[in-house]
Amino acid sequence: MNEFTLILSVLVALVVGFIIGRFTSRAGDAAKLQSAYNKSRKELEQVKRDLGDHFTGSAALLEQLDEQYQRLYQYMAEQNQKLCGENGSFKHEQIDTTGAVDEYGTDVQPLDYSGEPSGLLRDQQKTG
Fold it and tell me: Residue 92: what pLDDT?
């Protein structure tokens, strides 16, 4: 009976030790997970703040750009009126865009050469 009690005590101690070990390791894992969760949450909040600051800065820059374009447009309109008088518009000359037409009704391309052979492409032997 002494041996039986000893074996039974060892088995009970193993089971109790196993159960205690499982609970303490889960508590440690839970603490690690909670710590990682809190860290990730803080990083997410920081990214949200940074993104908000970025959009606020971008909106301010775009507003400045809009104001500068309005001033530029106002300046150009004033200069146009000073230079062109009361009607305030530039006068454009009409350019004749109709080119020469051959007998078939198609556009004739302008000649880029004189019509006379220059001899530049001819093989010439120099006598000297």
Answer: 44
User: At 101, phi and psi to the nearest 5?
Assistant: -125, 135
| CA–CA separation, 62 and 58 (whole Å) | 6
Q: Distance between CA 101 and CA 10 in Å, rounded?
A: 113
Q: What is the DSSP string of 41-83?
A: HHHHHHHHHHHHHHHHHHHHHHHHHHHHHHHHHHHHHHHHHHH
Question: Quick check: helix, strand or coil at residue 86?
Answer: coil
Whether this prediction's pTM lies above 0.85 is answered by no
| Distance (Å, whole) CA 119 – CA 126 | 13
What percentage of the chain carries pLDDT values higher than 70? 65
CB 107 within 8 A of CB 100: yes
What pairs with residue 107 in β-bridges?
101
Q: CA–CA separation, 62 vs 55, rounded Å?
A: 10
